[in-house]
Design a protein that fits this description.
The structure is a homodimer of 202-residue chains.
Chain A: E1 6-8, E2 13-18, E3 23-28, E4 35-41, E5 44-48, H1 51-58, E6 68-70, E7 76-83, H2 97-103, H3 115-123, E8 137-139, E9 142-145, E10 151-154, E11 162-168, E12 172-177, E13 192-197
Antiparallel strand pairs in A: 1-13, 2-12, 3-11, 3-13, 4-5, 4-8, 4-12, 6-7, 7-11, 9-10
Chain lengths: 202, 202
């Protein structure tokens, strides 16, 4: 089966079961929009996506087609099978209320939607809490370090229709967002589309 | 009180309680040796060191004097109060048996001491398991990305006597190692020294 594309409205997120061998396609429909992804082994949430393991084994901070995303137990969780953009971030945690409070004084500590809240809400039906959500794969996010280490968060390089496609290497509980941080998305938070293909074994 | 310096033999580690306002000094006695650090809030292990939060708030991949190390709840855990080296890594997870199996075929999947095992053993008395240990602050580890993202793990730039000093901003359970990975330590695994100063409130 292949699901119809689902649209995540700006500054929202969701959670879903992705079965082993199913393929998740994340599309930036308008261009310039980030989508944060985090996942857990469906049968044991103590096993979760690990940026540090993945970056170590891939030997690069930029993940793209052919790379494997590893768990904290060094087991493959997802394989990147297609990537039409080529620039994603795996250094930074999902934006949270604290991110806006600490980094963006223009919001004056008022409530702000965030990827952490949206991931936690999306994964809550599976029993996941915000504390368990670590560094996300920030699809289409354009983060780069200067040689001295300083980080730049520039607008995504993705254009309308760009896609990032992963295959599940185990049954996963996946959280996915249309990122809520204006700065990461060229000033305007836009929607994200996704679809799942492959057998659901039901 | 100030403790006498403790020596961690090559390829070993430990765990200890570090009280709020106590100061931990980590010394590279011979030069060229990495020490991995991870920590948890002593009163709630669901709160733990977060590389992603820290890098985001510091806006650099290289942490040094004046920077704050944050938890996954965006609360300060440690403040760097002195750093005579200036090059440490906060991208990579502690070396583990899987690291050697996947990256270093010269060890032919035989047992190899690792920072993950040593951290888990050191923190076991506090009820911590290996699954809970995320991306470590790899003191004196010399990791740098090319502009294209490729990572290099070069010998540490630390010389004999270099120190990295942090102050606890909350009560912490700290794991600390003398790193076990030959490649990260210029080919030879050496000892690490550490000491704690400040009131123990006992």
């Amino acid at each position: 089966m292949t699901t119809e594309p689902t649209t995540l409205a700006p500054q929202t997120g969701t959670g879903f079961l992705l079965r082993k061998d199913q393929v998740l396609t994340v599309v930036d429909p308008q261009g310039g929009q980030v989508s944060d992804l985090f996942c857990f082994a469906a049968d044991d949430h103590d096993e979760r996506l690990s940026s540090g393991r993945t970056i170590d084994y891939a030997n690069t901070i930029y993940l793209t087609t052919g790379h494997t995303l590893y768990s904290n137990r060094s087991r493959p969780m997802l394989t990147v099978v297609d990537d039409s953009c080529g620039r994603h971030d795996f250094l930074l945690t999902p934006c949270s209320q604290d991110t806006f409070d600490l980094l963006y004084p223009e919001f004056e500590s008022a409530y702000h939607p965030s990827c952490l809240e949206n991931l936690a809400t999306g994964l809550e039906p599976f029993g996941v809490t915000a504390d368990q959500i670590g560094t996300t794969l920030n699809i289409f996010m354009n983060v780069w370090p200067e040689p001295g280490g300083e980080l730049h968060i520039d607008p995504p390089t993705s254009v309308a229709g760009d896609r990032f496609v992963v295959r599940a290497e185990m049954d996963l509980h996946v959280g996915l967002t249309a990122c809520s941080a204006e700065k990461s998305n060229g000033g305007v938070c836009k929607p994200i589309e996704f679809s799942v293909s492959g057998s659901d074994r039901t």
